[in-house]
Amino acid sequence: MASKILSEKNAPCPYYFPEHLRKALSAIPDYPVTSIEADSGYGKTTALREFLRNLPGNSRAVWHTCFGEPPAKTWESICRMFGEVDAEVSRQLKELYPPTMETLSDIAASVHELGCGEETFLVIDNYQLFRNTIPSRLMDAFSVHTNPHVHIVFVTQPLAASPMSVHNPNIHRISTKDFLFDRYSIAQYCRRAKIDISGREIEYIKSISEGWIAAICLQTDNYRRTGSLVKTNDMNFLIENTVWNRVPGRSREFLTALSLLDGFTMKQAAIMGNRQSVPDDMVRLLRGNFFIPYVEDKGVYSMHSLLRDYLRSRFDEFEPEIRRELLHRAGIALSEAGDLFGASRFYFESGDYGAVIKLPFTVRYFYNNFDVGMLGFLERFVKECPAEVIGGNPMFLVMAAYFMFRNGRREQFNELAGLIRSLLDDPNRALDRDFLKIKGEFALLMSFSRFNDIVEMSAYHREALRFFEAAGECPPRSSFFGGNIPWTFGCSSVFSLYWRTSGDLDRELEVMDECVPYYVTISGGHGAGGEHVMRAEAMLMRGDDRAAEVAAHRAIYRASEENQIGNRICAELVLARLAILRGDRAAYISLREELTARARNAGQRAVFLLGELARASLDAVLGLRDEIPDWLLTADGINNMLFLHARPYAFSILGALLLAEQRHTELEALTDPVMDLSRRVKFLLPRVSHLLYLSAAEKREGRKRAALEKLSAALEMTLPDRVCLPFAEFGNELVPLLVELKGTFDSEKMDSIIALCERFSEGAANIVRQAEGGRSALAPREREIALLVKEGFQTGEIAARLFISENTVKSARKVIYGKLGIHSRAELKKITL
Question: What CA–CA distance (Å, rounded) separates 411 from 418?
Answer without folding.
Answer: 11
